[in-house]
Amino acid sequence: MWQGTSFALYLAVIAAILKPLRCGHVAIARLWLPVAAAFPAVFINLGHGQNGFLTAGLLGAALLALPQRPILSGILFGLLAYKPQFALLIPVALLAATQWRATIAAGVTVIALAGAAALAFGTDVWWTFAASTETSRKLLLEQGDVGFEKLQSVFAAIRLWGGGIPLAYLVQGAASVAATGGVAWMWRTSENRELKAAVLIIATLLTSPHALDYDLTILGPAMAFFAASSWSNGFRDFEISALAAAWITPLLARWTAGATNVPLGLIAIMALYALVMRHAMRDRTHCATGSPGIAQA
What is the pTM of this model? Predict the structure, then answer.
């Protein structure tokens, strides 16, 4: 019931993101569903019985609702409080875009959820949660009890290569700052809603030291947003290859990292981030010069 319901939400959000393309292109109308359903991260999430579908659905739905229904968007963002490591960039993006109503709605939702939990289970549950975070950080993240090959983060890549914990935090911090700066810049300056949504989702994975391979499910909405944004101007061959590689990567990421120490999942995330930022900078250049986009591929 849990997996089926959240999977339906994930598919519904992908369908909504691609609605303009589905209505205008027969091939996309025919192929979007099998491509979205066969995304390898889907099967990893199903195998773990995890919350990747819910995370992808809430994040994608919040970004879809933001332009016209900011309060609903804020509520959906707030519901992501169960995944706090993926909420770091949401306030950055909303504040950069001066989305005050969405920001307030998200904050109120988080407070309401925390209050409801305290009423249902007592306030001691929060102290217990806070006490458990240190053990979780040491065992699951720093010592890699969960398996560094399963983690798709900069931190995990440094530890996988034998780097120490301070070095891993340092490099992860630098990557997080860079990704945060990119999100703030794009959400402040760009008018391309789909491209902004894509970069926020992708950068969310880059900024978190604790992102497992089933969390790659959220790349589904990110790639859908990117396709919706860029379809009219066409894709270069290397961009199509990058999207195809990102699509298949969840199937190979854990095995490749375990066998060769190559963090394939992180490489795919970084490639997608660079691809989206390239399109954003290209859009800025075209707006400044008044030149048209590249021809339809």
Answer: 0.91
